[in-house]
Records
---
Amino acid sequence: MRFFEDIEIGQRRELGSFTFTADLIKKFARQFDPQRFHLDEEEGRKSLFGGLAASGWHVGSVCMKLLVADGQRQAAEAAARGEKLAVWGPSPGFRDLRWIKPVLAGDVISYASEIESLRVSEKRPEWGILQARNTGTNQRGELAFSVLATAFVPRRSASS
Amino acid sequence: MTLCFEDFPPGHFGTFGPRRVTREEMLAFAAEFDPQPMHLDEEAAKRSMLNGLSGSGWYLCSVMMRMMFDGFIGRTASLGSPGVNELRWLAPLRPGDDLTLDIDIAEARVSRSRPDTGIVTFRAVIRNAAGQALCEMVSPIIVSRRADAAAEQAG
């Protein structure tokens, strides 16, 4: 992961893509969101979604999964260069989460993250706070998911 | 009976739970979706800002969704949600927490584009057994109107 000082507004990272198979959609839905259109193809077709649709919380959780994997890749690259590792802190929340298009069985969602704002924490000056617009785009190039997420990022100066 | 738009007037809607969060379920979610050390590794978690093993925020959201389903969405003519206006993670979720969910209806209005449905915006707060708020969310859901109510307005 990067330190606060290494991050600039407008920086964008492609996080990779994820295929929402019918099995994965139903498995998540059975545990956390067993609404009929997340569990059954026919019910999905009859719904506003027009097909078996992933729970929105599944779509958001996969975004987190790919963000963490991207952070681990960056950490491995930094370690290979012999640099000090930045361990990111927790997130205080998010705003403006939109499920714009349904994510249907078989859809391949490509996720990306772009930095929107940066500031130093007033209460914890050894930390920076960033806002990133995280998005998911389907295989037809349609924006399906978008969220403005906040995270604590360590400052290099504080850890040296 | 299925709950429709008319069953969600502004004000306090209900309190749901408690639901026990098991260490096993919390760790399984973290392993699959959010494998950061603060959610998986007891020792690393002690050194984190959250001072101990904590659940992924997305796990807490998913549990909140399940509590909403069991509490009322499962018997509501819900057509889905367009998103979340705001969500705040206020305090760490710990293994063994017993969660309670409070739902307030902030706003309920008939949809202009689809007059047989309404948009119900609710505020959800999840608390642990000590009454500490862990997560707060404001989010709309789309709910069918009662057939007679929708027809009356159309006619």
---
Amino acid sequence: MDISFVIEKFVLVAIIFGISLVIAMYSTYAERKVAAFLQDRLGPDRAGPFGILQPLADGLKMFMKEEIIPTHANKWLFMVGPGLAMLTACIGTAVIPWGSPITTAAGRIIPLQVTDINVGVLYIFGVVSLSVYGVMIGGWASNNKYSLLSAIRAASQNISYEVAMGLSIIALLLVTNTMSLKEIVEMQHGWHWNVLYQPLGFLLFIICAFAETNRAPFDLPECETELIGGYHTEYSSMKLGFYLFAEYINMFVSSAVMATLYFGGYNYPGMDWVLTMAGPVIAPLIGTAVLFAKIFAFIFFFMWVRWTIPRFRYDQLMHLGWKVLIPIAIANVIVTGIVIAIVEKF
Amino acid sequence: MEPLTSKKKILIQKPLNFAERMYLPALGKGLAITISHFFKKEATIRYPEVQREMSINWRGMHSLKRDEDGKERCTACGLCALSCPAEAITMIAAERKPEEKDLYREEKYAAVYEINMLRCIFCGLCEEACPKEAIYLDGPIVPSDYLRKDFIYGKDKLVEEPLVKK
């Protein structure tokens, strides 16, 4: 392993980390702006032109706030909780292919993916299931009944929806025959996006993604009307900030996963023509821009849904998860399998 | 019970049909409604920079008027204070000295004229009571402040700007 490889990966990791933090930061701003526009308001517009410095002001406020740790809280776990939430939110970006490899003039090929492990989809799943631990540990360590209830809700919600999510992915894997995210993306060259082959699977996946990221209408773990602030009731200062931040990073990562698995990642129609026109350095970057456009579209969709659909009741959540999504997902797997068998036979 | 009006409407709760139970068409409708608001004009007015136009009978902050020569109209008769239902107005009268003839219109004037803006209910009775047309509630919205004492407006804030004499 040569040193340039290490440097290259390190730079890539730093860039992705920075980008995901900045996107999470500006997601808070975008959320407030989108919420405002959907409600015929203006949103924050005082800090800087159009209020674009608002996230900085919010961050500064978070840092300046008094740090309160409840007397009866488990101090160690209380501090681990937000850190774990943040960590698990960030490491999901490692396997996502951000663009096709760049070929430099010296003939060196730089892949725009931190690591291409052959079980990338499983890795994403593992990370997503870990993300509930931050919520659970934080909720439990707070020694507050509302936080605990919220943590229990988060755990049961994640378990319920992971099943349906996994089943919807199985149908996708039947189509792609691989678990490597890079190969899945490369199969979707041009217009052959997986959403065209797996529309029902995509629908199931996006519903489960909403549930996994604790976004409305599945934001039961932090529903104010019942649980005060949910699992972060007792948190203050930047620890609270970490929880809120982790939610936005989760949203970014799941948008990236959805764009990669179902919407062709960095592929777009006419990319071969662009490659011949723009050359092997610029064209992959255009692909990356396309991927980010898709991600932003998904993030906007997340926010759009939040201001449209009211929160589920707990029994409705469980009903939807176990009695609706899982049977549909199983049926989707069976139908996909049969169709593939028939296609391969003839 | 016998209906009292003809507006009574009997509600029938039908079981949901398949499309309704799927929720998806309803979700689509809801999303269409919210996104239509994305392109509507916002109702917000950026207040300190942009101010809404008030109606012609809007009553705002008081101003003590001057006459056409720039002399203060108020003669400290106290009718405004008497008429004030909130007891917001206090004044101390003083006699005009000969050299102050250009400042005050009559021989008596208000040396101190104070309105407590926290007490004032902007009813406009002082305006109606004034026989000299000296007080009008034609100003802007009274601004907010931090201390109670800062809401007691004296003549420095109430009296109109003096006329510029050429």
---
Amino acid sequence: MKNTLLALLAASVSFLLMSHAAEAHHGWSEFDTNREVTFEATVTDFHFVNPHCVVEFDVKDENGKIHKWQGEFSNPGQLSRQGWTAASLEAGDKFTITGNPAKNNAPAIHVARIRMPNGQEVKVDGGR
Amino acid sequence: MSRIGSLRRLAVSLAVCALLAGNVSGQSNPELSQAQESLHKVATTETAGALHEEGVPVTDPLVIAKCGSCHARDDKGNMERISWARTTPEGWQNALKRMILVKGVSLTAQEGRLIARYLSTFHGLAPEEAMPVRHIAERRIHEESNIADSDPGKACAKCHALALTLSWRRSLEDWKQFVELHSARYMFSPNAEIVAYLARVAPLHSPEWEAWSARTNLPNLAGRWLVIASTPGHGKYYGEMQVDRAGDDEFTTRANLTSVRDGSRTLRTGRSVVYGDYAWRGRSKGGEPASSAPDDRSSEAREVLWIAPDHSRAEGRWFWGQYQEFGFDVQLQRASSNTTLLAIDRVSLKAGSRANRLHLIGDNFPAQVAPRDLDFGPGTIVRGIVSSTSADIVAEVDVAADAPLGKHGVAFRRSVLPGAIAVYDRIDYVKVTPESAVAAFGDSTHPRGYLQFEAIGYQRGADGKLHTADDVELGPVDVTWSFQVFHAPEGSSADFVGRASASGLFMPASENPNRNFDVWVIATARDENDQNGLALVGKSYLVVTIPTYVFNGRKYVRDLDRWVDDGPA
């Protein structure tokens, strides 16, 4: 009986110790910080979620073909402090988005700044 | 876990605790020392009058015998620290564990249970104090997104849920001691502001506590209870639970649940303790042995319920799984001789639809039921009653094309379910819940951590905008599930990360690739299209992670929604 108690105690000892939220789960190293790309784009979806907010957007090339991209931000807590909400970007919004492209040429950027639909330019700090 | 493994783990844990204790006595961070000195001066000055707050006397001989050698008892029966703190059953259990591991207290399992029970019952939280923090005991992920930057509680939330701190009530002096020890153990700078904040929002004495501690009754929960439960991916269940007394504050249970979705039945039997007349803590398991399916509803589960002060209802969660990721959300209502409408099998009705067949679930429905007994709100007509029993009415309902959109109450005579059904014109979008989540690969000592997803339809609400607070939930949508690993070529397989069942259960791959993946969980509606005729799609952001990692010489283990420092690697 006592051993059972000890086993239970041992198994739960971690709760006595310090824990930390699973933020900063990986770095921005997948993105090329030496390059920036800018798109005139149309928002298709905006995810105001942990661990990172993500905007999905369509980019039309010179031939009229649509390419689907995603822009990754910091977490909702950081964006909230800059005034962002889940409704800050809506499907159909036209915007200009700038960021560091993915090193593996995936259609993804780490967002640096956005010119919002109302013309206001917003800096977006990364910081995974 | 083997006994040898347990003892080895205990030895490691003790070493960790000893190391942390060493930090307390041996740390020489001048900045920290200065801050602590400042804290002491300020808090002492501000609280000179509060140092003599009345304690809560300890009367239990076992607590006095086992704790008295360190926690001195005064002539009023107050024991140092213990008499100036109150918390939940889990709070006292963790405090006891810490005393055993760090202070070397020797207790048998039975003594530990009795002490935890006494303290939880007489040094616990009032029901009103426990309600806001019950998600901690229910093992729910709960985002504390409403903590302002200026809120001193933000300091707590940097490392753990603020609700964990607020699961305790302490005198101002005890909060000061707690912050001092906590800051030394975890190497942060204490300050008087946080002490004053905690003493203000979580005081030892409160009107709720005074009222609750004056109670004299033993919990009287025996009898028949009506149950409504739901589990993500499998929908609602209904049934009843017989509760029988098995001691002053102990009960045995026998619950029969029926799935609204497919009619399958589950019998669960269990045993529970009720602390302080409202905090139900128990275990139950299905009548049939649980299968190997991780989400088997017959699995042995822990039960955490909050019982209303008048003992007429209860609510909480029955849960299981490596990360407590599976469970029933449960609501109980004491059965009576009254007719009671409990639930409906549908969440929404489309405007302009006809002959919608609905099950109304309840208790003591009369033998004769007429359409006029039912009311689904303006713009609806009950065409007829298809069948009825004392527990189930099947009705056919028409909804006018111009019926008011939004939530409607549903009534059977005088028994009303407010906002139980939504009338909608179209599904505007699909939300995948949880909207973000963490699943875990397994390893030799950690089973995999699964995730059950659901695709829920929403209507835009009165403001006409999507993703705003007035959007109306319309219930589960029939979807197909797929996955896309971030930055992977479009259409490439995500099987090496995991797969989902048809019901949306994500199962991480059995091979641990020893790295994390960010993954889109994509739900594509089978029958619902957007205004361009394209299938509605919803996404959730899933991180599939390793169960443990080592950083700066320390091992971190994944818990429900965070990483826990498990000591030196």
